[in-house]
Amino acid sequence: GTANVGVVGLAVMGSNLARNLASREGNTVAVFNRTEEKTRALLDEHPEAGFVPASTYEEFAARLSKPRTAIIMVKAGAGTDAVIDELLRVFEPGDIIVDGGNAYFPDTIRREKAVRETGVNFVGAGISGGEEGALTGPSIMPGGSDESWATLGPILKSIAAVAEGEPCVTHVGRDGAGHFVKMVHNGIEYADMQLIAEAYDLIRRGTGRSPAEIAEIFAEWNTGDLESYLIEITAEVLRQADAETGKPLVDVILDQAGAKGTGAWTVQTALSLGVPVSGIAEATFARSLSSHPEQRAAAADLPGPQEPSLATETEGFIEDVRLALFASKIVAYSQGFDEIRAGAAEHAWNIDPGAIAKIWRGGCIIRAQFLNRIADAYAAEPDLPLLMTAPYFTEALSRGQAAWRRVVVAAARAGIPAPAFSSSLSYYDGIRADRLPAALVQGQRDYFGAHTYKRVDKPGTFHRLWSGDRTEVEV
Ligand code: NBP
Predict the structure, then answer these.
(1) Tens digits of per-residue pLDDT, 318-333?
(2) Mean pLDDT throughout 74-93?
(3) Spatial separation of the C-alpha atoms in residues 144 and 109, rounded to whole Å
(4) What ipTM goes with this model?
(5) Where is the 6-phosphogluconate dehydrogenase C-terminal domain (predicted)?
(6) Phi, psi at residue 53, to the nearest 5°?
(7) Rounded CA gap, 218 and 233, in Å?
C-alpha cells in the first residue's frame, strides 16, 4: 500500500475531508466512492492532492499501508452499515475503521461492539463545521478505544481546526462517546440559534429597528461576552438584502425552520437520562411549531396584544435583551454539559468536560470565546455539579438578573413568543429554589397511586391511607 489513510464516500463532506488530509505533510490519501464518477471527478478537479483512487473495496484495502485507517463519510444509517460490511471483508485485525458521519450514538455503540469482535477497531467520530470546516479544519469528537486513538490521534490532530494553539480534537471516551458529544453539540447549537432569533424578534417588534440596524447591534455584541460564530453570521444574514425584491432577505425567507433530527435526539436522550435540557427542547419545539402552517393559519385569529411596542427607552431595552441573551445562553450550555455528565455516568465514559469545551473553540458551529470560560470553570473544579454555579457564570447571572426578568415580562405582555428566554429563566428559578411544589406533586402521586413520600423531618418512606382514615403508615 502507498496511502496512510483512506476516505470512503466522496460527497461534499468526504471530498473536502480527503482534500484536507491530502494537504497535510506526510499524508497520502486513498479515495473510494460507491459511484465511481465521483471519484474520477474529484481526481480531475484536484490533481494537486495526489489522491490514490480505488474502484473496488479490494483495491482500496490494497492501496492502504498497515494498519489500515479508513474514514467513512457516507449518509448516516443503512449506508454506514453497508460500507462497514464491505470494509470488514477486505480489512484485517488491527486495522481501523472511522465513521465520521452523523451517526446516532446507540448505533455507534452497536457497531463498535460488532466490529471489535472481528479484531478490527471501530471509531465513531463526530465531525462538526460543515463543508467549510471539513476542508479547512473541523472540530472532531472521536470515541473508540485507546489503542485506536494512538494511531488515529496524530492524523486527526493534523486536520482539525486550531484554537489558541491547540488542535480541536480530543479522545472523548470509549465506543459511542464521540457521537454522543457531537449530538449534544448540535442540541446546544439549536438552543443558541433560537436564543439569538428571539433576541432579534424582541428588538425588531419591540423597538421597530430594521434588520440592517439589528445587524449592526449584533456586530457590536460580537465584540463582547457574546462573541461567537453564530452571532457573527446572524449579523451577515440580517444585513443581506434580496436582489429581486429589494427587501431584507430575512423578510422573504419562509418562516418555517427545518431540522435533520439531531436536536430531537438530544432531547429524547435527555428525557431518558432524566436531565432537564429545557433550552434545547424549546428550541427544537420552536422549529416544529414554525413548520405547521395549517395550525398557524387556524390560530392566527386567537386573541392577544396587537401592535407590540415594548419600550419607550429603546437603548436600555436593547441592552436588557443582550444581558438576557447571555444569561439564557449560560443556562443552555449548563444544561448541555449536564447532559454530557449524565451520559458519561450512564455509559461509564470518562469524559473531561473542560476538554470538550476546548475542542469546540474552533472549527464547529458553536465556536465562541465563551468556551474558554467553560474550560476555565472545569479546570478550577473538575466535579462542578452544574456549570452555571462556577464563579464567572454566577457573576454574569447576577449582572443580567434584573434585565432578564424585565425582558421575559415585556415579551409576555407584548405577546412576543420567547420560549427559550423564558424557559431558561424558569429553570434558573427552579434549580435555585429552597422549596419546590414537587412536594405537592409527590403528595398527589401518593394519593392516587400509593407512590409513597419521604419527610423533611425524619428518615423513612411513608404512605397515607387516603381512602381509609388518612393516617400515615411507614412502608
Ligand atoms: P451525504 O450524507 O449526502 O451522503 C452521500 C454519500 O453517501 C455519497 O458518497 C454516497 O455514495 C454515499 N452512500 C450512500 Br447515500 N449509501 C451508500 C452505500 N450503501 N454504500 C456506499 N456509499 C453510500 O454526504 P455528505 O453531505 O457529504 O455527508 C456525509 C456525512 O457527514 C453524513 O453522515 C452527514 O450527516 C455528515 N455530516 C455532514 C455535515 C454537513 O454539513 N453536510 C456536517 C457534519 C457531518 P454515492 O455517490 O454512490 O451515492
Answers:
(1) 999 999 999 999 999 9
(2) 97
(3) 9
(4) 0.97
(5) 178-467
(6) -80, 155
(7) 9
Do 103 and 81 touch, CB atoms closer than 8 A?
A: no
Alpha carbon 303 to its chain centroid, in Å, reads 36
374, 393 Cβ separation under 8 angstroms: no
pLDDT tens figures, 234-260? 999 999 999 999 999 999 999 999 999
Tell which atom from ligand 1 comes closest to the C-alpha of 101: 33
Q: Which of 211, 200, 281 is nearest to 248 (CA)?
A: 211
Percent of the chain past pLDDT 90, that is, above it, reads 97
Residue-level pLDDT at 308:
64
Q: Ligand 1 mean position to 80 CA, how many Å? A: 9
Give the mean pLDDT of 132-141: 97
Please give the number of the atom of ligand 1 that sits closest to the Cα of 82. Answer: 19
- Mutation probe of ligand 1 site: the residue of 36, 73, 132, 185 with most atoms within 8 A of C-beta: 73
Other CB atoms closer than 10 Å to residue 325's CB: what's the count? Answer: 28
Please tell me what DSSP assigns to residue 242.
P
Q: Say how many residues make up the chain.
A: 475
The verdict on the CB of residue 38 being under 6 Å from ligand 1 is yes
Return d(Cα 84, Cα 296) in angstroms, integer: 44
Which is it for strands 29-32 and 52-53: parallel, antiparallel or unpaired? parallel
The protein residue whose alpha carbon is closest to atom 43 in ligand 1 is 130
